[in-house]
Amino acid sequence: MSKLKDNIAKADSFLSKYSVLSHHIDGVSVTSKNTFDNHSPIDKRLLCKVSKGTAADIDKAALSSQRAFQTWSRVSGKNRRDILHSIADAIDKRSEEIALLESLDTGQPLKFMAKAATRGAENFRFFADKAPEAANGLSMPTEDHMNYSVRQPLGPIGVITPWNTPFMLSTWKIAPALAAGCTVVHKPAEFSPLTATILADIATDAGLPAGVWNLVHGLGEVAGRSLTEHPAIKAVAFVGESRTGSMIMRQVSDTLKRVHFELGGKNPIIVFDDADLDRAVDAAVLMIYSLNGERCTSSSRLLVQSTIYDQFIEKIAARVRAINVGHPLDPATEVGPLIHETHYDKVCGYFKIAESDGAQTVVGGAAHDGPGGGYYVKPTLFAKAHNDMRIAQEEIFGPVLTAIPFSDEQDALRIANATQYGLAGYVWTQNSGRGLRMANGLDAGMIWVNSENNRHLPAPFGGMKASGIGRDGGDWSFEFYMETKNVCLAYGTHTIPVLGKL
Ligand code: NAD
Question: Is the pTM of this model over 0.90?
Fold first, then answer.
């Protein structure tokens, strides 16, 4: 308890610096006349006011990033590496502030947010070290010509991020863009604006030149939309809901921008009767109830082989009943309040939908009376579900698991793939051939066999179908943030077809 009080006091003291959040445009802090309120998901109190970015603010930021691109794109890879390392070091120095404010702003438990800064710093270090080789291409010699490819930075990038793990996700986009030599205009989610402000401050302090990284707060339909439509912006890196992705695709069409979308998911975790069931239980529970279930890669559909269905559901249910729901700043809390009233209403709506669709509520299925009176729900397990129920098809984005039985491999694949989404899939079996067959058959961008969502930064991250377009990670990030140019040089040995010569 004293640790919680201590954390609340520290978080409030950090928060006191941020009564009104400003934009960061062309190296200068700019506060809008119009603001919107940012409330705490824990106790609904006002956390801070936030500058409400307009099309004019986006215009200034986009033009600033266009000017800065002229110089930043020519800074050597080695120098970009050094600056990005300085940003990573500064993130580490402010890790406690980042963790506490991220937790306060989003309701995500400190247990998980304690690592937010470390993971953000790792993203910067990883892409910093790749910066000197970002321009590398291929050499493709032929008998008469040398073809070689080089990569060049694309230009100013619009980065639009969601509220679920805002700090980590912002670094995941901004670090590779800067490493590639691009400049950035970042529009963070309106529900979780705090740590984006810290990040822009850090970048300035670390010596990033003015205009290389602009931050404009604001609403999606105004600031976000203007960013996607601005002609100076050459690409949009977006993380958020699938239907927002569709809107953005329409918005960028006039200016023909490149897009990278990381969207929603309804990811299956498939447990066969030959699996190590104890490890499978650990992974299944972690992947849906951590981060309040507000996680794109959450294992929200639990597919269990009929032979072990009852036994496995019992094991899961026992764990779900014991999950510690509480104040997110309490280090012992495993599930905190949901981000916002509208999201809370959405998640609670599924409790009724499940009932009317005939699913069985094994655990939870109701709001939770948590400390502060915020947007808490009980960790929930639905069983006796089938795949065409709304709770099996729609992204609930809360601590809510839907369990469905299957008979064999074919049946598991049929159920797993019968969704509009295709982000991740998890397979539990001790039969390696079956693991490979399932990995081949699943329509998803990322498959984990006998593991939870373990990220390796050089590996590709992204989804199929309505879960996204494009891949992040390692060199895949540079493929998005850079243009590939082919240069073809003649050895002077080939015959040029001659026209018009008498
Ligand atoms: P959202 O789509 O509502 O908002 C995301 C961002 O888009 C916000 O900054 C918002 O202001 C902005 N936006 C909204 N309308 C816009 C418009 N018309 N033009 C431009 N920008 C606009 O998403 P959310 O509710 O903040 O986040 C949750 C969603 O994000 C979930 O669906 C989740 O699965 C997804 N997500 C996906 C991944 C992934 O890697 N695939 C990772 C994290 C979250």
Answer: yes
